[in-house]
Amino acid sequence: MTTSVAITTIRADNPGPMTLDGTNSYLIAADASGPSVLVDPGPDDDEHLRALAQRDLALVLITHRHADHTAGSARLHEWTSVPVRAVDPDHCHGAAPLTSGMLDVAETAGVRLEVVASPGHTDDSVSLLVPDFEHDFGQNFGQGIGQGIGQDFEQDFEQDTAPTTGAMLTGDTILGRGTTVIAHPDGNLADYFGTLDRLESYGNVAVLPAHGDRRSDLAAVCRQYREHRKQRLAQVAAVCDQLGDLSSLDDPRARTAVIDTVVDAVYTDIADGVRAAAAKSVAAQLDYLAEHGCLSARD
Asked: Metallo-beta-lactamase domain: from which residue to which, for each copy (predicted)?
């Protein structure tokens, strides 16, 4: 018999164009007075790390290697001796790397967790399913309105409004508002589409992102994200078609020029702080289009 677990958010004070309101560190516990599993320690920030270190931690898990999720890991491990696990061995401390499947943490933390491979944003990204988290879509969830890289949009999708069970901690794979960057060359768009398919299969569980507020109905959000990516691909392909001969894409300087042209044409309203992220996503989109025969050299 399982009982509903509690998931507490401690948000780091590192707001910015890429981190939104800051990095969400999550504490997962079966009992408010018992041990917790911590997901994403966040930046190497004294105040944030001390707030985490004061908790009764059984295990630390990392969703992916980026510094806004991992920079505090080594110091937290030094202070607490709590093992830190990630897919990337370079970000593990006192424990083995993560692999897909159920985590054996019921004995130490009293909760069930499933590691779900989620490559795309980065090649080491994972999501974490908490199957025993109970939630009601009408309470404590964000409005689903935000800004993607260069586009405002509203998530207006059908969703089940009945209370349900389960939460997916998505790291940067799905954000609390807007869309994520495909961090080329580490990130890969084909992998990302596969991840959206995989996550959609978990149905209408809650979404707990590493940045922004909680969201309802993972499956519906995955469908919206997929449609947004397809629209972006069509826009990028249209610009490339206008450019004509793309045989020079193997040359780094020429490739950079093409990427800059696409960013200017497609991401027309982005802030300066996210232009580099947009360029990474465009690079990933160009690779995807080339791999699928959608870009051709012309005389």
From this structure: 22-184
Say whether both 188 and 237 belong to one domain: no
Count of domains forming the chain: 2
Query: 283-286: which pairs have CB atoms within 8 A and are 24 or more residues apart?
Result: 283/184, 283/185, 283/255, 283/259, 284/182, 284/183, 284/184, 284/187, 284/188, 284/189, 285/182, 285/189, 285/232, 285/233, 285/236, 286/236, 286/240, 286/249, 286/255, 286/258, 286/259, 286/262
| Same-domain check for residues 15 and 105 | yes
pLDDT at 297: 47
248 in the same domain as 147: no
**What percentage of the chain exceeds 70 in pLDDT?**
88
Domain-located, residue 235: yes
296, part of any domain: no
> What integer pLDDT is reported at residue 32 of this predicted model?
74
Query: Does one domain contain both 68 and 136?
Result: yes
Reduced to 3 states, what is the DSSP secondary structure of residue 271? Answer: coil
Which single residue is written with the structure tokens 């309105």?
145
